[in-house]
Fold Ribosomal RNA large subunit methyltransferase E.
Amino acid sequence: MTKKPEKPGAGVSRVLRTKIKKKSGLKESSRRWLERHMNDPYVQRSKADGYRSRAAYKLIEIDDKYKLLKPGMRIIDLGAAPGGWCQVAAARVKSSAEAPTVVGIDYLEMDPVPGAAILQMDFLDDDAPEKLIEALGGEPDVVLSDMAAPTTGHRRTDHLRTMHLCEVAADFAMTVLRPGGHFLAKTFQGGTETGLLDDLKKSFRTVHHVKPQASRAESVELYLLARDFRGRAEQQENDE
């Protein structure tokens, strides 16, 4: 019996099951994580599509729905490594290698991303905000943050550390965004967000949480999406 040829692209989302032998020298928890990662359909799809990480599909899903990224926009990507979000942003705003309108920052070294300028430094450094704006050449239209603190295994501690990064990213966004701009950042479920949400609601016309399908079902991560920045003048009026 002759097998019909598959259509181009068929099977990209199909999970090709990989087993890690128990006698591989790995701890059982590490073996399970590696096996789950290798069998993740988004991991396999990212390799087929040429993206640096599965996280690229989170931004793709969110942008497909909310239309945040448009040609000609200036974008800042906080916590950019390994570069998946920079890849998506550069393609969607049509950023060129000669005059990039996407700037990413991470303390981790990463390979160059066509259409993006990359700063290897810690976003928490005092001079990081100034260097980002200098590299971008003006106010950003969108600030993205997929930053997360290295996990300790203690859920409460991990949540608080990542929430701190989210708060710093939000403060930066409200300082540099042009009026009408957008802010998208990773956060975790678990409370302690009330103050941050209140500040964002004063500064943006709509604020809500998003959980893209590309986020693992068991993950507590969410994305905080704040759209249509009111501008610093109106923000100051709301604070008074």
